Amino acid sequence: MSQGEAGEGKDEIKPTLSPYEEAMEALSSLITKRSRADKSNKGDKYELLFDYIKILELEEPIKKMKIIHVAGTKGKGSTCAFTESILRNCGFHTGLFTSPHLIDVRERFRLDGMDICEEKFLAYFWWCFDRFKERATDEVPMPTYFRFLALLAFKVFAAEQVDVAILEVGLGGKYDATNVVENPVVCGIASLGYDHMEILGNTLGQIAGEKAGIFKRGVPAFTVPQPDEAVLVLEEKASELDVHLEVAAPLDASVLSGLHLGLEGEHQYINAGLAIALCSTWLQRTGHVEINYLEEMTHLPEQFVKGLATAALQGRAQIVPDQLIESESSGDLVFYLDGAHSPESMDVCAKWFSLAIKGDYKQHNSYASNHGHNELGSSHDSVEISHHEASKKSSTQFLLFNCMSVRDPELLLPRLVRACASHGVHFQKALFVPNVSVYYKVGTSASTVDTQVDLSWQLTLQRIWENLVRGEKGNDVKNTDHTYEEVTDDSEKGAQSCENSKVFPSLPVAINWLRDTVRNNRSGRSQVLVTGSLHLVGDVLRLVKK
């Protein structure tokens, strides 16, 4: 809280912060308010990162690290989760750095498959923060938020002496803070698509060029099947740097010995194939194994199978029953969360949701459910409803959606609606909400709801939705002015309602509306797809898992 804010009436008594909250305040001070789409972000004094590494005395430790570096538009987080899980199950001490976090910033730093503990996080955080503070000058100012987190990851992994560090690129590749790595063991490029075009370029070729910025001379690299335009650029960049680039084949499900992947969705077989290639190459290049598993794809070692079956990643194809409604036994409210935010991932998300609500998510023979092992409770959160019991209930589908204003909802929403419709799924209502967390704060204090929140973006989403649904229903779409229903229910205070949608002033109000809807219809089941933004997914998880 700034001194200015502290002087305003309601905040006169400054609450005592816990040591962790103090760290979150300090971290929040590094967030720049400008838009990521600001053109001056390009490179943004990239050379400063090398000054920061010197300040933290990390030059030698980073050179010695056995790193796997992964970029991509879609699937890079899943690929990293599979890769970490495989190598951990092979007996290695693993470090995994990913972004964004959903509930707690410590999720970004995982040691042996677990979020870093608070005690260690605070020790490393202040060691780095204080060093930067002491040495900050006009020429070398404090690092920005993401750069600080990436540098902190290097500090954590060096101090914890991990056997392997798996790094997920934050944005792009060439100018990403993780790209200070000069000699990774192997690099991976997950599926490419249209996202962050305001920074990375408008064509797949331009986007591929940015991602290929992680290639290092002579270091082998793998990618997944990509559109021709992207492949040409990747191959060109690879040949310039003498990089042996191979396309990793999607995993054949038959090699999993009847088990399922720990992450849901058919697209995960593509990510799993890439992870296997990265792990196999890492094992060979670090002298740990003689066998080339890439040529042996008819058989996978047990550790690889176990790693793939127990991998977990919050906010991707995750099913979570609402704990409050469950405790009241007053009905069924189940959230289906997926942080999809590109047009292609909307298709994948819609397909997963459409199959999941029909009961296909109950994976009796998955490794996770057989062995009770899934640290994050992600894809296999226990929705303990048998097919027989489920079939007795009528189900209603809702969409809970928000996306950042740099995304194009005219591309995202039609893809989602049409893909769901092709599986016979239609939303009774779409609910649009602002995110709870504000982008310039980290931690619990980031969840304060501003009563004067600007809903103009959510109203734009609502207008697009109404046009879309009326068009799908074949109604006259010319008259698209908002026709608001009379709002009488107190729980809907401030909600702006149209025929097929509602805009709520905050997420808690929307969740309460859903809970009341379920309480009023005990025989039914409400299935809510939460998508469009990982920030939104994190906010929902924070509220419904309480």
Number of helices: 20
* Terminal CA distance: 25 Å
Helix content: 25-40%
Q: What's the β-strand tally?
A: 15
Mean pLDDT: 84
| SS content category | alpha/beta
Strand content: 5-15%
Task: Describe the sheet with the most strands.
Answer: 8 strands, mixed
Low-pLDDT ranges: 1-10, 35-43, 360-391, 476-490
Provide the gyration radius in Å. 24 Å
Shape: globular
Order the strands across the largest sheet as they lie in space.
4-3-2-5-1-6-7-8
Topology:
Blueprint: H1 3-6, H2 19-28, H3 48-55, H4 59-64, E1 67-71, H5 76-89, E2 94-97, E3 109-111, E4 114-115, H6 118-135, H7 145-159, E5 164-168, E6 186-189, H8 197-200, H9 204-211, E7 221-223, H10 228-240, E8 245-247, H11 268-285, H12 302-310, E9 318-321, H13 323-328, E10 332-337, H14 343-360, H15 367-371, H16 387-392, E11 394-401, H17 409-422, E12 429-432, H18 456-473, E13 496-497, E14 501-503, H19 507-519, E15 524-531, H20 534-544
Parallel strand pairs: 1-5, 1-6, 2-5, 6-7, 7-8, 10-15, 11-12, 11-15, 12-14
Antiparallel strand pairs: 2-3, 3-4, 9-10, 13-14
